[in-house]
Amino acid sequence: MVKTKELSKDTRNKIVALHQAGKTESAIANQLGVKKSTVGAMIRKWKTYKTTDNLPRSGAPRKIPPRGVRMITRTIRNVETNQCLDNMGRKENEKVGIFNCHGMGGNQVSNTKLKEEGPWK
């Protein structure tokens, strides 16, 4: 099967504008030179999500399970200062703090992605 070219944002917005102006799917398809099924799909997307933007796709499954990610992030600490990242009881994707490592686990866990540079291990 041949992969088709993605519609430009301008074309997608024109489809919605013509639909809201009362044109039929066939008339819109003929006017813009796209398939009627494409016009129908774009109108359904607009009615469902109120957007013509591309929606995120599911993608490939993670290579490391969530438990493995938690285990790795528990061990993030600065060996020079013996300070650890601590989520301070906050939820995932919120700001974290830096405190002395106490080795008891608990809140010293973070899903923060760090660059490989620096003294963090």
UniProtKB/TrEMBL annotation:
UniProt superkingdom: Eukaryota
Gene3D superfamilies named among the record's database cross-references: 2.80.10.50, Winged helix-like DNA-binding domain superfamily/Winged helix DNA-binding domain
Pfam family, one: HTH_SB
PROSITE patterns in the cross-refs: RICIN_B_LECTIN (PS50231)
Domain Sleeping Beauty transposase HTH residue range list: 1-52
Chain intervals for the UniProt region annotation (Disordered): 100-121
Residues of the signal peptide: none
UniProt xrefs under InterPro entries: Homeodomain-like_sf (IPR009057), HTH_SB (IPR057667), Ricin_B-like_lectins (IPR035992), WH-like_DNA-bd_sf (IPR036388)
Protein name: Sleeping Beauty transposase HTH domain-containing protein
Classification lineage: Eukaryota, Metazoa, Chordata, Craniata, Vertebrata
